[in-house]
């Protein structure tokens, strides 16, 4: 709680300058990074005492998180909030347990759960439980809200890619088809790509902002939805 109060008090000072992502996502730095407030409408920073130095990003990344969380809260009030995990260090660069997250354009977010319970870390289970078991998405994965979250993030920010487990991507493809939401959201589905070790959280990455001339973009995903 003390960390939250400190960051909230410093928030106006930490967000004045326009941030600049420098280099590539896996080999970069961050100038004038913006600190995500520990709590806001519809979201909270997971395990703040550990992550207080890892919730920095570009202005567009912070705005995308805040906007997406607010949209979800509007449509699904009184449910589990968006639990934000690692972003970047204050000045970018290497961050432990990650190969990327170096230039302020990446963020990890826990999946929404059908039971509406936010994960509270314990000695036995520090991280959120995986939403995939034996190659199948478990019942506690809230497919509706996680699909709506992917769409909200696209509305709120210039999304390059959203890394998820393949089983989760396929489940979202099925859901989009079953609800008649597929054709209008090919680009959202296209951005969702399989990456190992993303059974318990998604990893959103933004494109380089237009005026970030020292930022190096990644190649876009192949055309099409990427659905089976």
Which helices and strands appear, and what pairs or packs with what?
Blueprint: H1 2-14, E1 20-24, E2 27-31, E3 34-35, E4 39-40, E5 43-45, H2 48-51, E6 56-57, H3 59-75, E7 82-84, E8 106-110, E9 132-133, E10 136-137, H4 143-156, E11 159-164, H5 166-178, H6 186-191, E12 192-194, E13 201-206
Parallel strand pairs: 5-7, 11-12
Antiparallel strand pairs: 1-2, 3-6, 4-5, 8-13, 9-10, 11-13
What does this molecule look like?
This protein has 228 residues and is α+β, with helices and mostly antiparallel strands. It has 6 helices and 13 strands. The chain has helices at 2-14, 48-51, 59-75, 143-156, 166-178, 186-191; strands at 20-24, 27-31, 34-35, 39-40, 43-45, 56-57, 82-84, 106-110, 132-133, 136-137, 159-164, 192-194, 201-206. The protein has a 4-stranded mixed sheet with strand order 8-13-11-12. A 3-stranded mixed sheet has the order 4-5-7. Strand 9 (132-133) and strand 10 form a beta hairpin. Helix 3 packs across helix 4. The longest helix has 17 residues, at 59-75. Residues 11-15 have low confidence and may be disordered.
Task: Give a summary of the structure in a few sentences.
The protein is 29% helix and 20% strand.
Summarize model confidence as the mean pLDDT. 92
Q: What portion of the residues fall into strands of 2 or more residues?
A: 15-25%
Biggest sheet descriptor? 4 strands, mixed
Q: Could you give the distance between the termini?
A: 45 Å
The overall strand count is 13
Strand order of the largest sheet: 8-13-11-12
**Class from helix and strand fractions:** alpha+beta
Gyration radius, rounded = 17 Å
Helical element count?
A: 6
